[in-house]
């Protein structure tokens, strides 16, 4: 075998707490073809070194498709993307993340079935001595009609479609979507018979037919093989004891490979598992591997471990990736139950009973939010965005920490949430309310129980109102018995049993009056890096929404809830609630909510009180605050 460059390139790595590691690797002689640092001056469309061939006509003006071009998802007509006499290919940042993709226009006014060719720069193969793997993404948007796609190979001298002759490597058909970007990964074998005598090649990516609106090609790579490793073992665990390592492996290899061996190594030793690859599955082979009792964890422990993948081909390189599993005690978990409810809904008294029971059971660790629908307590924007995000369409239904939708009285969900500690926490320190402007200022702190340099968190604030005497509540549990609801739930349903099918008037609590800035929260005011157990302090301002009822002191019946959200998963990580009775209103009551120093004294290093400290000597300074707390520090008195 001729020399193969030993290089491992990391393609994708996503490390998410309490989710999965995802690692995609290409191994061997790798050539990435995405150099978008400059563009040809002749057409301003293609990257330097690329070429194209096609009709280049203006897109059909009446075409219904559209392309999102900004983070705000503004829509641009296709005719604006392809003005008259434009090149058939343009560079589009389709997902607005800086990843520009060459796109071809195959919807034309004339020319019929027009083939659009995108030809790569010269690719240096480095005299490889075995078959190689070509991989790339096909990206579509717009029409959901099939888009025929082909890939051709030719020598490095090729520059026109006619130069590629019969060098067809691959052909396939893909469907786009009028609502979202569709991206599919394609793997093609470059047989050694084809490339043995080629030091360099060109590839042509071709879209044929007018059925597709846009087709792009990106993430090109040529390599010995490609492996996607998903490590289901949490990078962070809150529980001690034995833990297993669970992996999913997807292998793409250009020729027959007999087996795949996965080896897990820790300081305690190693374990290896071998899997036979069935005939014909080498190009696309998937397998799940589990190492039982791979780790023994205690609180405050960090364990590094290596996973090595070795192919049953002596010419193929193996590679090793290092991972880490951490065990911390963390913080007590919090459950936020966002409930879809309505006064018109007879079954929704289940949610009212659940709020009362969970409040009694869990105290401040449970936060109930009643989001009303189609009654006088409804906040339309909040109700619509909540039901759209959660997928809830029937009542009553609850969203627990934005992880699971179920019946409000399903205690198993609550138990599972409360059993495990959590990695992050949020605490509201104080809430200031200006009665003249109705402006609310929330002073809060977020914290992580380990050091993390790449957090992606957001914060949202919900205003609740208690003690609102509504007009009525439909009661579907009128006349129910202990046997109907169970012994544990009976104390919370007993009052509904003795009431009529319509309760008038009814007093509502936990009523949602608004969410700020929205369901997804604001990630701009939170840090992206945390030091273990060090609180990050922030403030947020919004205008108090309209509260229900009459009087100047309705704010006393309100509460502010802070929701700490994982942006990647949308899950609520932690929450805190601050009652209106503790607000600082128009600056009043400051001394009761803010810790102020009331006395200071010094002791020597032996703990003896010093009346008059001597300069240039060390003493212990103690500050006593009005709330009884103390802070001490060692200082050099000057």
Provide keyphrases for this structure:
9% helix, 638 residues, 8 helices, 6-stranded antiparallel beta sheet, disordered N terminus
Distance between the termini: 76 Å
Residue share in β-strands: 35-45%
Query: Helix content range of the residues, please?
Result: under 10%
Low-confidence stretches: 1-24, 28-44, 56-87, 108-113, 589-595
Q: Summarize the main sheet.
A: 6 strands, antiparallel
Q: Quick one: overall form?
A: globular
* Mean of pLDDT: 79
- How many strand elements? 44
Rg over C-alpha atoms, rounded to the nearest angstrom: 32 Å
Structural class: mainly beta
Individual helix count: 8
Write the layout of secondary structure elements.
Layout: E1 8-15, E2 21-27, E3 31-32, E4 51-53, E5 66-68, E6 75-77, H1 78-81, E7 89-92, E8 101-105, E9 116-119, E10 123-124, E11 132-141, E12 146-155, E13 168-175, E14 182-190, H2 192-195, E15 200-207, E16 214-223, E17 225-231, E18 236-237, E19 241-252, E20 259-266, E21 269-276, E22 285-297, E23 301-311, E24 319-327, E25 335-341, H3 349-362, E26 366-372, H4 380-390, E27 397-400, E28 404-406, H5 411-419, E29 424-434, E30 439-448, E31 457-465, E32 468-470, E33 473-474, H6 482-485, H7 490-497, E34 502-503, E35 506-508, E36 511-516, E37 536-543, E38 558-566, E39 572-579, E40 584-585, H8 590-593, E41 597-603, E42 609-610, E43 617-625, E44 630-637
Parallel strand pairs: 18-24, 25-26, 29-40
Antiparallel strand pairs: 1-2, 2-17, 3-16, 4-9, 5-6, 7-8, 8-16, 9-15, 10-15, 11-14, 11-16, 12-13, 12-15, 17-19, 19-22, 20-21, 20-23, 23-24, 25-27, 27-28, 29-30, 30-37, 31-36, 31-38, 32-35, 33-34, 38-39, 41-42, 41-43, 43-44
């Amino acid at each position: 075998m001729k020399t193969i460059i030993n290089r491992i390139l990391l393609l994708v790595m996503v490390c998410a707490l309490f989710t999965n590691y995802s690692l995609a690797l290409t191994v061997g002689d790798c050539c990435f073809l995405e150099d978008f640092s400059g563009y040809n001056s002749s057409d301003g469309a293609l990257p330097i070194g690329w070429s194209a061939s096609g009709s280049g006509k203006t897109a059909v003006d009446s075409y219904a498709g559209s392309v999102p071009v900004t983070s705000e998802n503004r829509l641009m007509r296709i005719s604006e993307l392809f003005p008259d006499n434009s090149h058939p290919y343009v560079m589009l940042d389709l997902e607005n993340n800086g990843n520009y993709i060459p796109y071809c226009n195959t919807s034309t006014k004339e020319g019929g079935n027009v083939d659009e060719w995108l030809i790569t720069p010269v690719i240096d193969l480095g005299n490889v001595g075995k078959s190689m793997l070509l991989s790339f993404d096909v990206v579509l948007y717009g029409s959901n009609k099939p888009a025929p796609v082909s890939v051709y190979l030719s020598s490095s001298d090729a520059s026109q479609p006619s130069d590629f002759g019969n060098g067809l490597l691959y052909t396939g058909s893909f469907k786009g979507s009028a609502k979202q970007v569709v991206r599919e990964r394609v793997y093609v074998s470059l047989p050694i018979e084809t490339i043995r005598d080629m030091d360099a090649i060109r590839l042509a990516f071709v879209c044929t037919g007018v059925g597709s609106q846009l087709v792009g090609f990106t993430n090109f790579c040529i390599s010995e093989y490609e492996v996607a490793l998903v490590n289901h073992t949490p990078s962070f665990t809150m529980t001690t004891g034995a833990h297993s390592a669970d992996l999913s492996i997807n292998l793409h290899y250009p020729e027959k490979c007999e087996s795949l061996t996965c080896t897990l190594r820790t300081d305690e030793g190693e374990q290896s598992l071998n899997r036979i690859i069935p005939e014909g599955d080498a190009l696309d082979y998937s397998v799940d591997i589990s190492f039982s009792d791979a780790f023994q964890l205690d609180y405050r422990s960090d364990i590094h471990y290596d996973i090595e993948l070795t192919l049953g081909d002596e010419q193929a390189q193996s590679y090793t990736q290092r991972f880490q599993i951490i065990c911390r005690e963390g913080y007590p978990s919090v459950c936020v139950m966002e409930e879809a409810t309505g006064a018109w809904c007879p079954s929704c008294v289940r949610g009212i009973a659940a709020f009362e029971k969970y409040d009694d059971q869990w105290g401040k660790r449970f936060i109930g939010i009643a989001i009303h629908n189609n009654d006088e307590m409804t906040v339309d924007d909040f109700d619509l965005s909540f039901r759209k995000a959660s997928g809830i369409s029937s009542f009553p239904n609850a969203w627990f920490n934005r992880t699971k939708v179920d019946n409000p009285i399903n205690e198993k969900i609550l138990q599972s949430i409360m059993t495990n500690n959590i990695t992050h926490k949020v605490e509201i320190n104080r809430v200031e309310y200006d009665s003249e402007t109705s402006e609310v200022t929330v002073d809060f702190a977020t914290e992580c129980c380990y050091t993390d340099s790449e957090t992606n968190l957001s914060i949202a604030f919900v205003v609740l109102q208690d003690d609102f005497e509504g007009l009525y509540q439909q009661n579907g549990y009128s006349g129910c018995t202990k046997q109907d609801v169970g012994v544990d739930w009976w104390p919370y349903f007993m009052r509904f049993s003795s009431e009529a099918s319509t309760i008038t008037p009814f007093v509502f609590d936990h009523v949602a009056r608004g969410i700020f800035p929205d369901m997804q929260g604001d990630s701009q005011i939170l840090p992206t890096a945390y030091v273990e157990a060090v609180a990050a302090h922030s403030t947020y301002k919004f205008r108090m929404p309209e509260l229900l009822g009459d009087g100047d002191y309705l704010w006393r019946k309100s509460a502010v809830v802070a929701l700490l959200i994982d942006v990647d998963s949308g899950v609520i990580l932690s929450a805190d609630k601050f009652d209106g009775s503790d607000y600082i209103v128009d600056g009043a009551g400051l001394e009761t909510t803010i810790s102020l120093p009331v006395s200071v004294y010094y002791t020597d290093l032996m703990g003896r009180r010093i009346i008059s400290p001597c300069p240039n000597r060390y003493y212990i300074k103690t500050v006593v605050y009005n709330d009884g707390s103390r802070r001490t520090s060692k200082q050099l008195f000057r």
